[in-house]
Amino acid sequence: MTTPASRTDDGAPEGSAVGAAAGADLLDAARRLAPEAIALRRALHRGPETDLDLPATQRLILDALDGLGLDIRTGRALSSVTATLTGAADGPTILLRSDMDALPVAEDTGLPFASRGPGLMHACGHDVHMAMLVGAARLLAGRGATLPGRVVFMFQPGEEGHHGARLMIEEGVLEASGSRADAAFALHVNPNMPAGEVLLRPGPQMAASDRFRIVVRGRGGHASAPHTTCDPVPVACEIVLALQSAVTRGVAADDSAVLSVTRLTAGTATGVIPDTAELSGTLRTLAEPTRRRLHEAIARVAHGVAAAHGATAEATVVTGYPVSVNDPGMTALVRRAAADALGAEAVRELPAPQMTAEDFSYVLRAVPGAMAFLGACPPGVAPHEAPSLHSPRMTVDEDVIATGIACEAAVALAFLAGGGRLDG
After folding, report:
1. If pLDDT is split at 50, 70 and 90, which confidence band does 13 have?
2. Beta carbons of 299 and 315 less than 8 angstroms apart
3. Which of 107, 127, 165, 267 would give a disulfide with 274, using CB separation of 3.0 to 4.6 Å?
4. Helix 126-141, helix 55-65: angle, nearest 10
5. Residue 96's pLDDT is what?
6. CA dist 145 to 15, 70, 140, 410, Å?
7. Helices (H) and strands (E) in the chain, counts
8. How far apart are CA 322 and CA 359, in angstroms?
9. Which of 165, 194, 210, 190 is nearest to 369 (CA)?
10. How far apart are CA 93 and CA 183, in angstroms?
11. How far apart are CA 331 and CA 368, in angstroms?
């Protein structure tokens, strides 16, 4: 669907400069937009939706973008929104992305705008991401007369395990402007980082995420006579321990991998040894060779341990999101643009990659890009004490919404002003 609209102005002076030179006034412009963005964030927070079908969320975004002179299209297989801003002069294209979906988490924040959806919550900050990206769209649309290129605003459902970014790529989001995007950028709030700080690093920043499931098959019987059975429960327990050793003894110290068994189920009664036991969990890695090697190790360990006890095991690994790899040149541009807009003291290099995962990784595999974390620790609490992402008590400092608007706009302006050049 394409929605015609007209441009509005954010109040910036006519003919404002673009790129790093414009950084000084972006934060002021973003602060003027902040009340409206915060109101949108709270409306989104009250009405969370999950997975790929987010009709109410999509409607809020469409209404918020109305009147900005953007070419707006909605998804076919998912409730996505793609909005393209075309500047007055020809130039490169940059994509800015926000995710849209919530989590199946029962909110426990006590906020006056807490979720009204039973068992649902924006516990990962996607409501904040949407509000920031709408704000950036408003700010940049007000400067459209000076933009040498195009900006694509990507509002994406299904980040929480449903591969929404991949689906949007399949539906053409990278070509939404008429030519393939030359670069991409996304911000992700983090309540365990100081409010207002922008943190990122070149290379791997977030992990690949895979799921595994192992079914151990033995032979059940009476719990009073285990010697007449092939008990799958201790076999499953040994597999759990052996998998931990497969990581600590099989992955180099300068590499990174996390394997967590998060579920182990067996049996129906205390007096019965079951026929089967099942365990499942997650694998996180930062390098594809390590990822492939541990996929093989999961199957090998499960089969070997089971065979040693006369049981069998069936191991299945479901491949999830790829490693999120920041392009060095785009990372450097983000650092410069954010420093110009927010001050050098607000930008830091992320000390180490995070073992969380992101489906923005699909975009980063397709075009040079970067994701940065935006510190959002709520007032009155230390970052290490704040409830984390995915917690039912997760909250953010809403003042960082203006920071995020300015940062996203600054990155877009700097990229377009530089003609799309990336010097790593």
Report:
1. very low
2. yes
3. 267
4. 20
5. 98
6. 7, 13, 10, 16
7. 9, 16
8. 7
9. 165
10. 7
11. 9
Residue with tokens 């049981």: 311
SS3 179: coil
The pTM of the full predicted model, rounded to 2 decimals, is: 0.91
Q: Residue 295 corresponds to which amino acid? A: H
Give the pLDDT of residue 254.
87
Alpha carbons 257 and 272: distance in angstroms, whole number: 37
Q: Model confidence at 323, in pLDDT bands (50, 70, 90)?
A: very high
- Three-state SS at 316: strand
Place of tokens 């997760």: 394
Token pair recorded at residue 249: 């003894």
* pLDDT tens digits, one per residue of 63-103: 999 999 999 999 999 999 999 999 988 999 999 999 999 99
Strand order, beta sheet including 276-285:
257-266, 276-285, 208-217, 312-318
209 phi/psi in degrees, rounded to 5:
-130, 120
Q: What is the DSSP string of 263-278?
A: EEEE-SSTTEE-SEEE
CA 330 to chain centre: 18
Strand order in the sheet with 81-86: 71-74, 81-86, 148-156, 89-99, 183-190, 369-375, 198-200, 347-349
Tokens of 391: 């917690």
- Average pLDDT on 276-287 reads 97
pLDDT at site 22: 57
